[in-house]
Every structure is written in C-alpha cells, then in structure tokens.
Amino acid sequence: MNLRPDKPEAPEVNLTPLIDVVFLLLIFFMVSTTFTQRGEIKVDLPEASTEQVEARKEPLRLTIDADGAYFLDGKPLEADGDAIRDALHAAAGGDLEQTVIIRADAQSRHQDVVRAMDASSRAGLNHMSIATTVTDSAEPSVTTKP
Question: What domains lie within the chain, and their CATH numbers?
Fold first, then answer.
C-alpha cells in the first residue's frame, strides 16, 4: 500500500482572456487618441511695403564691464537695480517703445546681466537686445529677444 501523497500538479494558467483584454485596451487607446503636431511654431510674418518709415530713435546702450559696473550711454551708474531702472526711465523720456541694447563683457557675471534686464523691464522698456560679437570678423552685432 502506498501512503505517500501524490505530487501536486502545477496549476495551468490560461492566458487567453488576459491577452484578449490587453488587445482590446490597445485598440481602444489607438482609436481614441488624436495625433497632433505640437512642434509647429506659428509665426505671423510682417508684410513688406514701400512706404517711408519714420526714423527710429537711437537705442539706449546699457554696458556692463567685467567688474560689474554699469554705464548708460557711457555715463556710469550705481550697481543698484532701482538706480538703473530710474536712469533708464529718465533716458527713455516716457517712450516705452525705446529699445535697450545690453552690452555685457564676456567675463561679467550672469547676475549683473539679469539685473540689467530686470531693471529695464521694471522701467517699462520691454524691447531689449543683447549685443554680441562675431568671432570671425569681431564686428559687433545685436541679437534680439524673441
């Protein structure tokens, strides 16, 4: 007489219903998803005209040297954000369409450039450009803010 218990059989798992559900979910998400192109940038380009354009004022030139000293059109300013803002506002004469060109030394701190941009923005002058130089010809150029 054999009193040892039989070895239990391994349970058999039926995966067919699971695969059916996964395929149904896959089909559902494929059908319900809309594919849009989010990488496009829509730009309204200006139209050219042959009219004479009114001459623009000279831009304000805010210069920052390597030591963090500020100069507005060659005149020294205090390195305080409020003093820079007041000087820019006075130089613009209430014209909020005035352009400010920020010329910073390559060795100046990033904080000084951000302070100048912040002071210009708080003065209401939102048309800012950053002056750069081309490495081949070393001629100054202006890169505008988008």
Answer: 60-144 (3.30.420.270)
